[in-house]
Automatic annotation (TrEMBL):
InterPro entries: C1-like_sf, DC1, P-loop_NTPase, PKC_DAG/PE, Znf_PHD. The lineage of its organism: Eukaryota, Viridiplantae, Streptophyta, Embryophyta, Tracheophyta. Residues 250-305 form the Phorbol-ester/DAG-type domain. This is Phorbol-ester/DAG-type domain-containing protein. SUPFAM superfamilies: Cysteine-rich domain, P-loop containing nucleoside triphosphate hydrolases. It comes from the Eukaryota.
Length: 485
């Protein structure tokens, strides 16, 4: 049997302490979600009955979009049996699809929920699944994988072709020809969840969204990012700030000019807040604008930022430690596994701004520090490398940056070019299919930042110009979520 290629999809894993009977836990989540949804109020009386229905989760996607990886994630989380069309090597095309449908029918007749992994590029296959769902009284939901980042999609295809030389299509050109032959059809009255597999996502959100839209009375086509935003907004709208602050969370700050609470004090300096301030949308946390931005030391940041905040740290080594109220009430000391202890310590040490205004992005970026065991993982928007634990983030746009990338010098001089080079956040894009670094002559991604000389059209990887950014292959070894496809 040939070894399958590895596809790098960044998935934020669930905390280890909630592992257990996956199917029952997931169904309880669905029940809670259904009860929150205003559209499903009429279903409250028979939620339990609805949860007894078998479910078909059908994957859809073109080659190397990550659908088989996502199918395995869902199967692992839910403990549903997975039937993959690729496993039936002795059958071709429609015969293999019909075979997995018949196998699935037996499981569904026993009220066992199933996952079917196929490309689902034919309307006839979609119609067969509808027939299967109707004959077994099952709920059918389609999870479609659409990699929005074409460059990353092409890289996956090329890596897989290297590992498995018999894999077809083996080139990007072959894939484009294949896509031209596929049907572009409407799934009709079948609920569908669309997932961008080139972006990081939380597997718990994927599971909840998949099962929830399967139980909608009316068919929906929803993107995962959209679903998560709507769900969070609904939860926030039903809670007061005091209620939202009763659980631990990452603070989301907005700048306000007027104070409703004239006795509010800054959580950094403990002084009365009178003028502009950043307050959390989730709770009553508040910071002076000056304290949050540390505008007096922004220019000195590249020299003063400690190394453990620049890269993936083995441990957090703050010069002093502060204990959050929750840990004090529990009679505990500082814990680097506590989100609030870490954030409070960051605020009091004043090593980095909590709110950073950077010319690379239109919105303010918020400093985000997480316990190293929380598996907070991301792909840096600047360099495209893996990151964990610490980031500057724009939650409105779902963007994350390494601290080290944001602290890079705006201009520098390098031995590979005679003129000064400027850090370019929006590299020129002439529509070419390939882009190269003029320093190392390796391929580069057009959306990643570069050091650039416009006069000579000299473009270079950031990692080639400064040791602050490590080359991709070294970072790639540190990925925690490399899932076999």
């Amino acid at each position: 049997m040939q070894k399958r290629a590895q596809i790098a999809i960044v998935i934020r894993r669930r905390p280890l302490n909630i592992r257990g009977p996956y199917q029952h836990a997931a169904e309880m989540d669905v029940q809670k979600l259904l009860e929150m949804d205003m559209e499903e109020q009429a279903m409250k009386d028979d939620v339990c009955e609805q949860l007894k229905h078998p479910v078909i989760i059908a994957m859809k996607g073109h080659p190397c979009t990550g659908k088989s990886t996502i199918a395995r994630v869902l199967a692992d989380f839910l403990r549903y049996p997975l039937f993959a069309q690729d496993d039936l090597l002795d059958y071709a095309g429609d015969k293999s699809f019909e075979a997995i449908c018949r196998i699935a029918a037996t499981q569904l007749s026993l009220r066992i929920r199933v996952i079917i992994d196929s490309s689902l590029t034919s309307q006839a296959h979609r119609d067969r699944l509808v027939q299967l769902a109707e004959s077994t009284r099952a709920r059918l939901v389609i999870v479609e994988c659409r990699p929005r980042d074409e460059y990353e999609w092409r890289q996956r295809l090329e890596r897989r072709a290297i590992v498995d030389q018999s894999y077809k299509p083996s080139t990007w050109g072959d894939l484009q020809k294949m896509l031209g032959k596929y049907e572009d059809y409407d799934v009709g009255a079948v609920p569908k969840l669309i997932l961008d597999t080139t972006k990081a996502f939380r597997e718990g959100c994927l599971v909840s969204a998949t099962l929830r839209i399967a139980f909608y009375r009316n068919p929906h086509v929803v993107e995962l990012d959209q679903w998560v935003d709507l769900a969070m907004n609904r939860i926030k709208s039903n809670q007061s700030k005091k209620e939202r602050g009763s659980y631990r969370h990452s603070h989301t700050f907005g700048l306000s000019n007027e104070r409703k609470d004239t006795k509010a004090t800054c959580n950094i300096c403990s002084e009365l807040v009178l003028g502009q301030a950043y307050d959390c949308d989730e709770c009553e946390f508040i910071l002076h604008k000056f304290c949050a931005e540390l505008s007096d030391k922004v220019q000195r940041l590249p020299d003063e930022c400690p190394s453990f905040l620049r890269a993936i740290p083995p441990v957090y080594t703050f010069p002093e430690k502060h204990v959050c109220d929750a840990c004090i009430d529990a009679k505990k000391g500082f814990s680097d596994e506590c989100l609030d202890c870490l954030f409070l310590t960051h605020l009091k040490c004043k090593l980095l701004p909590t709110i950073l205004h950077h010319e690379c992005h239109e919105h303010p970026l918020r400093f985000d520090i997480n316990p190293l065991n929380s598996n907070f993982e991301f792909i840096c928007r600047a360099c495209g490398h893996f990151g964990r634990g610490i980031a500057y983030s724009c939650f409105r746009c779902h963007l994350h940056f390494h601290v080290s990338c944001l602290l890079l010098p705006r201009t520098l001089k390098h031995r590979t070019h005679r003129d000064p080079l400027t850090l370019n956040y929006f590299p020129p894009n002439d529509g070419s299919s390939e882009y190269y670094c003029n320093a190392c002559e390796g391929e580069r991604k057009p959306s990643h930042w570069i050091y650039y000389c416009a006069d000579h059209e000299f473009a270079a990887h950031m990692s080639c110009m400064t040791p602050e950014v490590r080359p991709y292959d070294l970072q790639n070894d540190k990925r925690l979520d490399m899932l076999k496809m």
